[in-house]
Amino acid sequence: MLTENATPETEHLKNLFWQQLFTALDELPDEQKQVFIWNELEDIPFHEISRLTGEKINTLISRKRYAVLHLRKRLNQLYKQIIE
């Protein structure tokens, strides 16, 4: 794991990952970005997000799904650059 073997290289990769993640998040519509951040990064459950926003849980799940698909595509590009 990257945190167990902290080296300048792993710190650089970790910083690069977070930079790329937030760049990719900024490319998303605000609704998708916010749901992903709340659910994944802030660990807020969908039922709580639904209560706060008034949106249906299925709508929130769909927004997160689109966010995840976009992030996978974008971060896969980073992964390919790292392993090449």
Q: Which stretches of 5+ consecutive residues score pLDDT under 50?
A: none
Task: Tell me the helix content.
Answer: over 70%
**How many strands, what sense, and barrel or not for the largest sheet?**
none
Radius of gyration, whole Å = 15 Å
Number of helices: 4
Which sequence of SSEs, written as H and E, runs from N to C?
HHHH
> Terminal Cα separation, in Å?
20 Å
Write down the overall mean pLDDT. Answer: 90
Strand content: under 5%
Helix/strand structural class: mainly alpha
The coarse silhouette is elongated
- How many β-strand stretches? 0
Descriptive overview:
The chain is an all-alpha fold and 84 residues long. 79% of the residues lie in helices and 0% in strands. The chain is built from four helices and no strands. Helix 1 (8-26) crosses helix 4 and helix 2 (30-41) crosses helix 4 (57-83). It is elongated and about 45 Å long.
Keywords:
elongated, single chain, mainly alpha
In short:
With 84 residues, the chain is an all-alpha fold. Helix content is 79%, strand content 0%.
Topology at a glance:
Elements: H1 8-26, H2 30-41, H3 46-53, H4 57-83
